[in-house]
Amino acid sequence: MSIVQIKDLDLYYGDFHALRNVSMNINEKSITAFIGPSGCGKSTLLRTLNRMNDMIDSVKISGAVSINDTNIYNPTVNVELLRKEIGMVFQQPNPFPKSIFENVAYGPKIHGIRNKKQLDEIVETSLRGAALWDEVKDDLKKSAYGLSGGQQQRLCIARALAINPKILLMDEPTSALDPISTLKIEELIQELKGDYTIIIVTHNMQQAARVSDQTAFFLNGEVIEFSDTSKLFSNPNEKKTEDYITGRFG
Amino acid sequence: MARMKQSKNAKELNSFMQKKKGIYSWDRMMPIILATIAGISVLTTIGIVVILITESAGFFQAVSITEFLFGTQWTPLFADPKFGVLPLIMGTFMITLVASIVALPIGFGSAIYLSEYAPRKVRNFIKPILEILAGIPTIVYGFFALTFITPIIKMVIPQTDLFNALSAGIVVGIMIIPMISSLSEDAMNAVPSSLRNAAYAMGSTKLEVALKVVVPASFSGIIASFVLGLSRAIGETMIVTLAAGALPNMDFDFLKSIQTMTAYIVTTSQGDTAYGSVEYRTIYAVGITLFVITLIMNILAGYISRKFREEYE
């Protein structure tokens, strides 16, 4: 069952052709990794899925991106509601300068949940979901900036889970973290797979190999190869993929 | 040969280093020179406070502090002088009230527009204009109040005095808009865009991002801009001297002539009061009152911005 269908997608930043004729289907409740050298378009593709590229003035997009059988670039689509369905975790942990509780409650609040008891429940479930509850349950009123980098990133995951999304986009979520925090996040990603469709951009090929079910290899805006992770890393179809994963460039 | 040259170079370097590190070297003098320069502003402040206190001390020997602080009539130049400062404080308060009603919403609103909504081109066009507005001499604003705003008010409400608190207050408000908007915008602009992205990615609208993320994160800077603006409104002199009149009273009627603390100081210091007389010393008594009020405002602002701060670093 594919939840995301991308068909003939081209994307330009001004004159720069950042994505070339990308087509792929992403399965529900699976983990898909995007790998490739810097500037290959993997983050750009991730950001087209929740239309975060809309904020850049010079972007031009053609082709179709469907999520749950709705073309998300249809002018009638409500971008705010679309983004509610798609959580996003960024490269640098970016908690709000608010308390831990307020960070997680932010999303539910802007989507209309006012009931204190309900908010308490959502905050607890989300923090448990992000494997952070036991570490912070007594400090919910404290500033999120007192947490370590790894904890902050898990808080950001909890914040994304709190709006109950179907899809979770992760843009190099561990590149600013130490190895132990990275390991925790990777374990967490595995646990989340049961409930969410996860798409993760990573620079770290071992990470892609460890966590993902399917992997797409990008080069210069094109998807060179997209297949099961085990196949892509052990027996790639394309010479370019092989060169990249064996470290010959990139 | 080469060796000799080397040792000669080493010698030169040595003597250079000694010069550089000697007692009279720039490296040692510089902190002293800079500290002296910095000290000038500190000394000036101390000097002002000392003058205010010593001169007003003379005043308070002649007039009791109770009469000064709680008296409701201010007629120091009359044959039967009354020294109650409340009418002047009332005048200043009225001007500041009108100015903040005008300036806070407009300044804050335009800061949000410039920081969160305006395209870069529009922002680059409007910001310099705001800064020019901030550089107009206040005497020009004073005549603007008298010859442009007052006639408009008189058209709407004919019984308005020619000199009135409303017109001066509105124009003081206009004068501090650029300060509030420019400083608030700087504070909002300093909020990292990663926070905005996080909020957008959760489905926030622009308004939610502005009001629930950017404004809380830049709150202390916004409050600081409000307080600076209001302090300027309290201390503003030329506009109120020209447009608000010279009639200290407690009526709280914005359409009538009033007098502010600053306007009183100007008109009295231009007059023919004898040096050292009680009338002359009223200037310092009013001055120290003004000083204390702005000092309290600043302390209050520091407290508020610390209390509500949401730090992002």
Automatic annotation (TrEMBL), chain A:
It holds the Pfam family ABC_tran. The keyword ATP-binding applies. PROSITE patterns: ABC_TRANSPORTER_1, ABC_TRANSPORTER_2. SUPFAM superfamilies: P-loop containing nucleoside triphosphate hydrolases. This is Phosphate ABC transporter ATP-binding protein PstB. The keyword Nucleus does not apply. Keywords: ATP-binding, Nucleotide-binding, Transport. It comes from Chengkuizengella axinellae. The gene is pstB. GO terms for molecular function: ATP binding. InterPro entries: AAA+_ATPase (IPR003593), ABC_transporter-like_ATP-bd (IPR003439), ABC_transporter-like_CS (IPR017871), P-loop_NTPase (IPR027417), PstB-like (IPR005670). SMART domains: AAA (SM00382). Residues 4-245 form the ABC transporter domain.
